[in-house]
Amino acid sequence: MEEFFQVGIYTNTHGVRGEIKVFPTTDDISRFKKLKEVILRTKEGDITMKVAGTRLQKQMVLMRFAGIDNINDIEKYKGSGLFVHRKDAIPLKENEYFIADLIGLSVKGDDGREFGKLTEVLQTGSNDVYVVQGEGREWLFPAIPDCVQSVDLAAGEMTVHVMDGLEDL
Q1: For the structural domain made of 99-160, what CATH number should be given?
Q2: Residue ranges per domain, the chain?
Q3: pLDDT tens digits along 41-95
Q4: Dihedral through CA 117, CA 119, CA 122, CA 123, nearest 10?
Q5: What is the pTM of this model?
Q6: What's the N-to-C CA distance of the chain in angstroms?
Q7: Which of 22, 82, 94, 109 suits a disulfide with 113, CB 3.0-4.6 Å?
Q8: Which among 132, 128, 87 is positioned nearest to 108, based on CA atoms?
Q9: Is residue 168's pLDDT more than 70?
């Protein structure tokens, strides 16, 4: 299981006092208001940064870090990912999973058929779609209860029901 989850990407500076613009890669942008620290994954290595301030602006997040009050101190890290430790992640509800934990699961049908490995999760707005590679083809399964029968992270597998119409796609 992944120890760290990416919550954003540092895209640009904002002003000259060290504030940055972050493109959120998390479902809940308001989670940034609760962050106390993030790990900035730079080319030189990971840097733990204490969050000094956060505000939302359109679809972006503006952040300030403790000890950074000059554009020159932060500009060199542009393009870096912002990560949080698993223990600091938002608690999940029942039957919710972190995407990072789903990637790589073996996917089989409720009839015993082996489909392959879950390689990607497409976020479509209405529901996620699981991309599964195997049997010389790609399968797309909607992440809805009628299709996804069970997820067993410990066993590394997911069981799906092939709904009418999905077999021919």
Answers
A1: 2.30.30.240
A2: 4-87, 99-160
A3: 999 999 999 999 999 988 899 999 999 999 999 999 999 999 999 988 888 888 8
A4: 90
A5: 0.77
A6: 31
A7: 109
A8: 132
A9: no
CATH topology for 4-87 is Elongation Factor Tu (Ef-tu); domain 3 (2.40.30)
* Cβ proximity of 16 and 70 under 8 Å: yes
The reply to whether 99-160 shares the fold of 4-87 is no
DSSP-assigned letter for residue 127: S
Cα gap 10→73, rounded to integer Å: 14
What is the helix (H) or strand (E) element at residue 71, kind and residue range?
Answer: helix 71-74
Distance CA 157, CA 115 (A): 11
CA atoms of 71 and 105, how far apart (whole Å):
42
